[in-house]
């Protein structure tokens, strides 16, 4: 397996952790396979940990500290990194999104970025008050290229009904956007379902999130204004999978959801 490039340790605490993990392994004359055995993970996971592509969990940090007598170095670094703001979060999220074989998306406020028309994106970015509108629109449209991969990603999308009824831009923009959803939902790899307003309170009201599957491993991404948070700890990610399943239980089936989107779309004529 080719050796991946090390991240810059000055970029973030997570990058520093990745560099330190490789350095401590090398200092002890251990191979990647040796560390994989210690962590009870496969070799590709070790490569991704040391390149900074995925983050060291507190569980694995504890194993490294105990085995190498580091004085809780890795546990301490991981705890500080989890508490602080990671400047690389969006870069990591975008890289995972581009490679994900499956995406599970729950969106409570907006049409998901990968499914937006350019006009909808521009209206959303303009309403948010950003000055670099053209740049933001171009970047979002660029991200949508991941939908054209071969094979394309499997996408399971659940939207709050308010997402399709809330006007963003003009009626023409909304009509075009909802038509785009119907077009995408007709593809064999994309399912779009709606949680009706009549559902009332449910776990999805806490906020939007997505679960990305890359090389058989899941990461969760929590959306927030101006920033987000990437979650890669196995226990935390499992809680998001359970939350997605509970939201899915509240959603209309795919055919009924498409019917509802058509009804709303016609209202925007």
From TrEMBL:
**HTH cro/C1-type domain: from which residue to which, for each copy?**
21-65
* PROSITE patterns given in the database record: HTH_CROC1
Molecular-function GO term, any one: DNA binding
Which Pfam families does this UniProt record tie to the protein?
DUF5753, HTH_31
Q: Which InterPro entries match?
A: Cro/C1-type_HTH, DUF5753, Lambda_DNA-bd_dom_sf
State the protein's name.
Helix-turn-helix transcriptional regulator
* Protein's organism: Actinomadura barringtoniae
> Source taxonomy lineage?
Bacteria, Bacillati, Actinomycetota, Actinomycetes, Streptosporangiales
